[in-house]
């Protein structure tokens, strides 16, 4: 039997009952109360916010995109880098004015930031206008917590008890858009990369049962979603904590068998766990995207050791070669950290060398940001912000050149695309190729959610332009 700790059905039923009662109360009001939900950080947070919206809709709330009009503001925070945290703190600080102008307005904060003790203390001390604070694993209790917050009571409610809380199934999600469905396959992370706060705020790795994931995938396809996006901090260790024979490749294979026209994407893969079996499965499953996001973080072996990444630069490069051998058209994207403590200029050159060698389609580049509680935050760091910025600029310049060259290779080619949204100008739509490349095409909004064939007619560093050949 799989050893999965999930919230009991009785507990969930209690939350559904509270949602029903709140809905009754809200629909009896002369005007429907409005909620504003703001999300920072990764796709997991996007997915959690869809559940918050789903629960709010069940409780009779409408939605607004203006903080000033909202009766309830929920801010789903991120803790991965300081920049995101400072933005959240600044924006939450500014809500004192909004709240003063709209008495009765309630403000809730959730997500990874509140799970750090030093941030929680600061929030409690300096942000008295926040009414409710809850951690990622209290999300399923949101109806109960909100209900308590709305009742007359003293002070604020803080529920951020555990980083290893139970998984939950069956919460309603209000998905944003009709094309993409986020599907979490696992929570938490066991890797403890020395720079990263995730294991401290999201706890140990816990996989959902394969049946639950496959059921959610099937329901999403039946509901008309065209892109199933499987999420986990390290999807390649999916199933290791379960007492059964199911790994991530098994999930891909099973979801690939579901009838219907859709595409399976996933994020994130850790290089130390990306196996031949994963690449072979990707190559075999026609609905799985021809793209892998495989963060390498640094091209220098000493830095990689200090980061506790568990592979060498050469191992990483060979991994990408294997993937390309099996899937010549695969797109490779990655994350890099510049200026990890003690990284020298020479060691940074190895990162540039790796980027030249692999030739990524796209890179997400970050300047190192110390995180309280992590091993790297205790390392001495003789290099200045300016040193790091200089390295960062060189990396961007190199990648921009490579991106332009890889993009240019698509000119004149035909790609199957999934049209997924409104574009940046009148009559323009956004789409993704099966390799995840962004394409702008012309067309009306009725095409959103359909697959089409496009010929690539233009490009820049970040996107392609295409002409529709079908529809
Ligand atoms: N689980 C994923 C990534 C999670 S965080 C993985 O291991 O790939 C997303 C990215 O943020 C990381 O890949 C890393 O490049 C960056 N990151 C994480 N912690 C950081 C820090 N302290 N400073 C700068 N960038 C960081
Ligand atoms: Fe953070 Fe490393 Fe886990 Fe990714 S694998 S979430 S970088 S600790």
Which key terms come to mind for this protein?
Transcription Regulator spoIIAA, binds iron/sulfur cluster, alpha/beta, 13 helices, 471 residues, binds S-adenosyl-L-homocysteine, Rossmann fold
Number of domains: 4
Q: CATH top level of the largest domain? A: Alpha Beta
CATH superfamily of the largest domain: Methylthiotransferase, N-terminal domain
**What's the alpha carbon Rg, rounded to whole Å?**
23 Å
Please report the distance between the alpha carbons of the first and last residues.
Answer: 48 Å
Plain-language structure description:
There is one protein chain. With 471 residues, the protein is an alpha/beta fold. It folds into 4 domains: 4-166, Methylthiotransferase, N-terminal domain (Rossmann fold), CATH 3.40.50; 177-285, Transcription Regulator spoIIAA; 290-409, Transcription Regulator spoIIAA (2-Layer Sandwich), CATH 3.30.750; 414-469, Nucleic acid-binding proteins (OB fold (Dihydrolipoamide Acetyltransferase, E2P), Beta Barrel), CATH 2.40.50.140. The chain has helices at residues 9-27, 43-58, 82-101, 117-126, 142-150, 198-202, 210-222, 248-256, 276-284, 301-307, 313-326, 345-358, 385-408, and strands at residues 34-39, 62-63, 72-77, 106-111, 132-134, 157-159, 180-184, 186-187, 206-207, 227-231, 263-267, 291-293, 331-338, 362-367, 414-422, 428-433, 438-442, 451-459, 464-468. Strand 18 and strand 19 form a beta hairpin. It binds S-adenosyl-L-homocysteine and iron/sulfur cluster (SF4). Iron/sulfur cluster is lined by residues 189, 191-193, 196, 198-199, 233-234, 270.
């Amino acid at each position: 039997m799989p050893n999965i700790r999930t919230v009991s059905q009785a507990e969930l039923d209690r939350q559904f009952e509270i949602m029903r009662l709140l809905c009754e109360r809200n629909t009896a009001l002369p005007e429907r109360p409005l909620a504003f939900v703001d999300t920072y950080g990764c796709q997991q947070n996007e997915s959690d916010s869809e559940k918050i919206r789903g629960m709010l809709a069940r409780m009779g709330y409408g939605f607004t995109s203006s903080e000033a009009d909202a009766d309830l503001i929920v801010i789903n925070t991120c803790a991965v880098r300081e920049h995101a945290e400072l933005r959240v703190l600044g924006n939450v600080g500014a809500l004192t004015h909004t709240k003063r102008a709209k008495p009765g307005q309630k403000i809730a904060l959730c997500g990874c930031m509140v799970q750090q003790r030093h941030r929680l203390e600061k929030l409690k001390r300096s942000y008295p206008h926040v009414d409710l604070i809850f951690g990622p694993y209290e999300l399923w209790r949101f109806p109960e917590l909100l209900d308590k917050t709305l009742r007359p009571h003293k002070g604020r409610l803080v529920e951020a008890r555990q980083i290893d809380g139970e998984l939950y199934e069956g919460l309603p999600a209000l998905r944003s858009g009709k094309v993409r469905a986020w599907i979490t396959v696992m929570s938490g992370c066991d890797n403890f990369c020395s720079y990263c706060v995730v294991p401290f705020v999201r706890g140990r790795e816990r996989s959902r049962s394969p049946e639950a994931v496959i059921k959610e995938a099937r329901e999403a396809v039946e509901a008309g979603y065209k892109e199933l996006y499987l999420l986990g901090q390290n999807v390649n260790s999916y199933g290791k904590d379960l007492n059964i024979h199911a790994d991530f490749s098994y999930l891909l294979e099973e979801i690939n068998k579901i009838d219907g026209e859709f595409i399976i994407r996933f994020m994130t893969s850790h290089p130390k766990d990306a196996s031949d079996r994963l690449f072979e499965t990707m190559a075999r499953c026609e609905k799985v995207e021809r793209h892998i996001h495989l963060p390498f973080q640094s091209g220098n072996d000493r830095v990689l050791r200090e980061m506790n990444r568990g592979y060498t630069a050469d191992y990483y490069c060979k991994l990408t070669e294997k993937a390309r051998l099996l899937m010549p058209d695969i797109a490779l994207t990655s994350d890099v950290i510049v200026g990890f403590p003690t990284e020298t200029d020479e060691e940074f050159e190895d990162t540039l060398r790796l980027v030249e060698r692999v030739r990524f389609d796209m890179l997400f580049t970050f300047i190192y940001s110390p995180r309280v509680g992590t091993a790297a935050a205790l390392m001495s760091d003789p290099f200045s912000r300016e040193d790091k910025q200089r390295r960062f600029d060189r990396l961007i310049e190199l990648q921009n050149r490579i991106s332009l060259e890889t993009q240019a290779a698509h000119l004149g080619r035909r790609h199957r695309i999934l049209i997924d949204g409104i574009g940046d100008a009148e009559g323009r739509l956004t789409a993704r190729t099966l390799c995840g490349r962004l394409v702008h095409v012309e067309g009306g909004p009725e095409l959103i959610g359909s697959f089409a064939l496009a010929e690539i007619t233009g490009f820049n560093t970040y996107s392609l332009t295409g002409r529709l050949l079908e529809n």
